[in-house]
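Records of this kind hold a single protein each, on a pair of labelled lines. Below, a sample record shows both lines together.
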Amino acid sequence: MQHSGAQGRYNDNVLVIGMAIGQVLSFGVLFHSFSIFLAPMQAEFGWSMTQMTGAFTLGLFCADIFGIPVGHWVDRHGGRAVMTVGAVIASGLLLAWSYVETLWGFYGLWIAIGFAQSMFLGNVTASVIAANVRDYRRGLTIVAILSGLSSIVVAPLSSFVVTQWGWRTGLGVLAILLLLGPALLYAILLRGTLGSRTAEFARRNLALAEGRLPSAAIGPSPLASALRRPAFWLLAVACSVHWFVITGVLVHFLPMMQERSVAPDIAVAIFAFNGPAAVIGRLALYVVDPTNSARRSGRIAFPMFALGMLALIYVAPMGFWGLVVYALVYGMAAGVIMIVRQTAIAEIFGLRGYGAITGALTTACILPRTMAPLSIAIMRDSFGSYEPVLWILFAMILVATIAFWLAMAGKPRQE
């Protein structure tokens, strides 16, 4: 496995920082700014919040569905073309959104935006770093730390523009930002970068073009090999629970606090603290364990995640500082697990085929990620309160913890 990439590409530090900047801008535009457009669109069209957030959820679903084919492409050809094109497409779709007039058109745009997201957000960035950065664990950690700041970088700009000139102009500004930011950055920065399987396919294609047999046949599909191993499905269980819990709690936190008679301003403050807590956790991981071994980090983070849920059950009702304890422990653990998921794939299965395996793992988590809000709502209505639901979530985290330990039980792959 070659981490140094092709001749002429930028060094590791420049590549990592550049990818982090691209992710900050991309997540800020496509995720953290979405809610800013809901109120003005509702005022103009009369659509309900449920109808509009449904389009956003459908976009996430489509992004996950396309994860496997995009991962295959990046493994074979590298990330430059797909990430640049994806950002350009997303920019055009934001501009098209500024002209939307019907709810069906809005849904159609978000299906397309979901496809574009799969081309340059999250997994693709991790795949590029894993294939081209020598210390990929450090690179993934730095990107995760910096991308956690996206909500405080882009969202205020979006809010200002929408307040001053309206939501349609705001979308035009974000479209320009995406085009001149991530799209241009990836086109320049990723020149010369490789995919995890670029070399083996290039050697094969060259041999065939010259009318000779390849000197070595391409090995078995890394994805097929991974799917045959229990470790993949155990890791899928652990990651699915993580997605289910963080997504469900994210949506239900404020109603949960209302049920416990927590003042709305305190509830909102604690809700907002989860993001910084995740950044704190990632920074702590970078300081305490610079090598970012998924084995070590995950064996700490998953039990810590369970403690965070216990804090929500027992400590949070004790008042403001109890809620702070919950948000700190829970947020730090959730933030670290996001990094662990990326590095664990490389440690278990190796770097060959990293993009496709990451995409498959994301696809396996689609239903837990998208169905969590509805599932928790049904459980809450059945029980009559959130407390039994929290105990169920705690039990699920314990199962995830055991699954992670079993998935990481084997010897780490060396690349």
Notes: DSSP finds 20 helices and no strands in the chain.
